[in-house]
Amino acid sequence: MKNINLAVSVLPEKQVLYAKYLTVRGYSEELCRPLEIEDYVVQPMADVSPPKWHLGHTTWFFETFILIPHLPNYQVFDDEYNFVFNSYYETIGSRVIRTDRGNLSRPSVADIYNYRRYVDKHMIEFLDAEFLTQNLVDIFVLGLNHEQQHQELLLTDIKYILGHNPLFPPYSKEIKSAEYANHDREYVRFKAGIYEIGFEGQGFCFDNEQGRHKVYLDDFEIENTLVTNKQYLDFIQAGGYSDFQFWHAEGWDWVKKHQAQAPLYWHLIDGKWMIYTLNGLMDIYLEAAVCHINFYEAAAYASWRGMRLPTEAEWEVSADHISWGERWEWTNSAYLPYPRFKKEAGAVGEYNGKFMINQMVLRGASIATPKGHSRKTYRNFFQTAHQWQFTGIRLAR
Amino acid sequence: MKNINLAVSVLPEKQVLYAKYLTVRGYSEELCRPLEIEDYVVQPMADVSPPKWHLGHTTWFFETFILIPHLPNYQVFDDEYNFVFNSYYETIGSRVIRTDRGNLSRPSVADIYNYRRYVDKHMIEFLDAEFLTQNLVDIFVLGLNHEQQHQELLLTDIKYILGHNPLFPPYSKEIKSAEYANHDREYVRFKAGIYEIGFEGQGFCFDNEQGRHKVYLDDFEIENTLVTNKQYLDFIQAGGYSDFQFWHAEGWDWVKKHQAQAPLYWHLIDGKWMIYTLNGLMDIYLEAAVCHINFYEAAAYASWRGMRLPTEAEWEVSADHISWGERWEWTNSAYLPYPRFKKEAGAVGEYNGKFMINQMVLRGASIATPKGHSRKTYRNFFQTAHQWQFTGIRLAR
Amino acid sequence: MKNINLAVSVLPEKQVLYAKYLTVRGYSEELCRPLEIEDYVVQPMADVSPPKWHLGHTTWFFETFILIPHLPNYQVFDDEYNFVFNSYYETIGSRVIRTDRGNLSRPSVADIYNYRRYVDKHMIEFLDAEFLTQNLVDIFVLGLNHEQQHQELLLTDIKYILGHNPLFPPYSKEIKSAEYANHDREYVRFKAGIYEIGFEGQGFCFDNEQGRHKVYLDDFEIENTLVTNKQYLDFIQAGGYSDFQFWHAEGWDWVKKHQAQAPLYWHLIDGKWMIYTLNGLMDIYLEAAVCHINFYEAAAYASWRGMRLPTEAEWEVSADHISWGERWEWTNSAYLPYPRFKKEAGAVGEYNGKFMINQMVLRGASIATPKGHSRKTYRNFFQTAHQWQFTGIRLAR
Amino acid sequence: MKNINLAVSVLPEKQVLYAKYLTVRGYSEELCRPLEIEDYVVQPMADVSPPKWHLGHTTWFFETFILIPHLPNYQVFDDEYNFVFNSYYETIGSRVIRTDRGNLSRPSVADIYNYRRYVDKHMIEFLDAEFLTQNLVDIFVLGLNHEQQHQELLLTDIKYILGHNPLFPPYSKEIKSAEYANHDREYVRFKAGIYEIGFEGQGFCFDNEQGRHKVYLDDFEIENTLVTNKQYLDFIQAGGYSDFQFWHAEGWDWVKKHQAQAPLYWHLIDGKWMIYTLNGLMDIYLEAAVCHINFYEAAAYASWRGMRLPTEAEWEVSADHISWGERWEWTNSAYLPYPRFKKEAGAVGEYNGKFMINQMVLRGASIATPKGHSRKTYRNFFQTAHQWQFTGIRLAR
Question: Is B355 close to D249, i.e. CB distance below 8 A?
Fold first, then answer.
């Protein structure tokens, strides 16, 4: 979880909060509608959480940070749930027994939906009763943004679960997952000078975006559109995965250890590349933006092209002049604090900066991001070996 | 799976086979009745299989070795299932994609019950049609014994799944899991001389029991009853888990690595030992036979008592004079072939001897063993670190 | 190894090169004088190389990049040495057999000194013969800087080898390893604005320093002196290693995994902190700058103090106003390319940017750095868990 | 270490003990004569000990069990050595600091030879002074046998150290390592019945050989000579390493994990099999007995031939009728206690049975066994994956 700007939000009308709450909470369940009960339970790798855990954890957030401390006479749904659905908030509760999320058959999916009903009912009661102070609005809005982040992870993790099943079940036949990147390809040019980046203005943002500040940039050019499957396939076919000179040392170790030869979900079947998508296994769509590549692959591709990835400052400065939103875009910026970054106090703010090491910034948004959740100052971040996000490549020079 | 004595069975009446088939198949499903769908899916450690896998794998056996080769015009239920439900039969099918059983949310539980229905229907058709030859009867009987072995594993694995959930859900409130071992404790004495062990006579046996043969035994004494929780607790309280001198070197490494201090499912809660049973978490029942100990623990306990575990020959020779059936009893015999042991040809017999290294023999049966499945010549075997079976200790000297 | 600025050096007089060569080569051997032969061989962890490997590898550099391609009729000393002393230059030779450096008893130490004599003799012949072109001077100077880098590693690795021996043998009784940091502690203040960083001018630099460029900095203050053992001991005694809130998530995982409670080489003996130094095990010297801490520890200490580590740009801008040279100083800057960074072609330049991911920049120099080897634009870098370097902490805000 | 029969030895003349002591102690040093100092230090895998450790550990045995407790006024050579040279005797001293033997450059080789001189001098003083009681003679003789066991390990480990160096240095050009197995190949036949095995009579034996006892054997036949390189090459060329059906399940896992395709020290160079021997790398000698195979390979070879390995009882019964002594011969018997096996008290006898699990018995002796050290009742044992011993194959049926 990333954290909130507690200073800038304003007290909205009760009805707006109410509608927003229902919409966000409903969308999490909507995303799970195509699932079998069995799909809610499994965890094929450590970074993936079982869908039922996402549903419980986002609910636990509202119960823990709003209902328990602020709703009079609230009865906890189940004392054990704090242990099960806490993630990394080390100040809340003990974490003695070691069990992996993917081994927990109970609470059942039905129990968790009951938990959601129970908390929703009390949240509505809470909103109705006008207990909201400015500070609680901030936490409430943070809870909604937190749930939206988990909505993206939910879809990402569902894809991983189904895409690693040898039966390759589709998530849904109805959604359109092949995205088009058919803009005319051109460079956008920027002159050297002082620019400003970081969040400013009204509305919600996470604390890592705050502290609008000046940066000095050299001249640079950035592509207006993303690298396509076709372009990436050229890299594969030119032997990109077997020539160390394009790779970081760590990246090359990753290639050798995993015998990597393509993005995640690409399968070479009878000599032909197929891709597992949310619609099932299908022919590769060449004009779509390449997806599910890690930082090493993004950087190696750029190196092979004689170009580079943009920095996050370059990206943000050019955001209004390029087309973005289909893929989270790897930048060549490490995830580090902005000047004047400050930790918030207490459990909500506990971990403001705790992930600011050995991760790289992703900018933009992806087709899995809930509508309205991202913005041009949004700083997403992942470790460099991860492929399971909807990640892509934009080039600069 | 262990394999069959193809030579000694006789052609039973069709009705007997028919009834036996329904009984065995029904009992597997009966065992799963208390489960939630989520419980069928998870795999908390590599040695445990998800219950739905047991249900599918035992069905796959009949489809693969009887229906496909011997029922005219049989249509395979699903081509992919051979990959999913094959276990270690390396001659059947390819095993290219590596996925763990515990990561497979599909086929769903409903799909697997449909699979069972489909195969049952065709098996009944097959039995009705009198296609049985002597050789097919043998495979059919093997399939039933194979399913019974998996019934024991099913219950063992369910206990592990529920017993490693922090909510400690009971499997069933109705069953009685605390067993009594309240015989008068005494030694049975045997004189040195030549004895015979191994299966002989009519009826089914696995091939590892075959080859009845002479062994020479020295004088020995064996206890008529098993070590109890109370006796084992004395060992714990005397510091048995912190004094290396009672342990094998490998066993002591195991103790240190896992910081072991009690059998599996024992929990020291507020200074008091509790045990997770199939009825849930409860007070320790002191008179019950100790359960869920591995070979290292059994041998260390015996050493602390100044005694030893019996050999499998000693056990078999004394089987008619002692009380057995509550716990699989660790012997101090390695699982090795009897004289004149021969591999069978083909996939069924593929692995006759493949497990005959670095495992120890267990004799008897446990409360989880299906009625009628074991016998005094039965050779069970496990690796020495395993605790999750219903294992116990009998002493000899 | 880091790489060279091929453009800026000028052709020095032959005598200067000659003297420089002898000095640098001699100093490597001087550093090894206190060693027993056995000390040259071992490798107690993967990041440490056996001293004899450093002696061979630095020699291999001159043989491979100068003598073989440029000295007429040069006979390679031993064909196998390319395999043994190559480090990570993947374009030179095959690397089929996997053996760890610490397992190689041969070539013997005597063989390696013979190798050094042989290469030195031919290098002198080469320098005498005036074969030097500007390009070769650059490689030659790079070879000397490369050897100096290994001199620092040599001392660092020797300390690790002797400091992990239960006999705690001193490296040398003659050297003074307790360093003083007894400046008056004060903050140096800088105003926001555009500054320039990066190498410029004559003389040698590595390529990662090149590309002098503008950066915009906010107001900042930086301490003129380093954090002392006494100050760090306060952090330890205040429970710094047992409170997660000061640590990055990765750092806290490191603490728990290693049960870390102090810098490397600190030993709590009979309730008193002792430190292994190059003079042997001794009482802690409280006024010395704390040493052998990793990035996680440096950042946690700063967090506990309510301050932060400087960025590398802040450090470089203030370098002329602070006292530095005793410890490599962790910055909060990731090791990433400067604007307009370009890979060099060929094996020497093969890996210019290959380490520019998941490492943090260290600035300054340490008491183990050869005199004249560092400068204020020098960019050292290590992974965040490493403690075995002579690393320290400077605070900013 | 294995342990001693304390009951059967008789008090020899002082001169005999004296001569025996010098011979055994001298031979350890003789074995090390061809080594460089660097060869004494390294440990390329956990099962291999550095030669200097063997020299120190065997000396530590005499110091710890004879000089310290029984020589008046004896001054320990170095207090730290108990920590460094103790192996697994958990009752003697603490073992707090974890360092691997292969990381210890000190004590130096010279220190260890001084340690040997010092202990030898005091042992001679001890023998001269006629302090020997029957019990001390037993420990003294055990110490000599213990050192002989380490002499075999010393040679085995030296071969591993040099044989894993890419320079393939020979141990000694003078020794003859290609052994002949040119007996006429024939089966020796034995009738079913009661036989006796185990040590009896005068002289030294280890405790695991004691307890001469009856065993019942079925009819069996055993080859009088060992499987040759030529025969084993047939197995390789017939695809033995790529057909799972010949292997135990564990063995097949080992093959796949290590991509095994030949015995240890075999190298396929330019399409031709070469073997590293104590004389260096050379052409395979086809008539020599195959060497350096693990239990899995021995069992797979036997299975491919449609035969089996003998049990240890069969081997001992036929020992006078077959040619043995070139290779330690894998049997299909697990290393388990004989009837009436009893642990000795105290540190010497501490671990009598501690290795009696998950190891297989080897019978005979090898070209690396010191003359006079083995006998037909000798029970050697190793874990099933080990190849680095001088192990071979004899077939039975």
Answer: yes
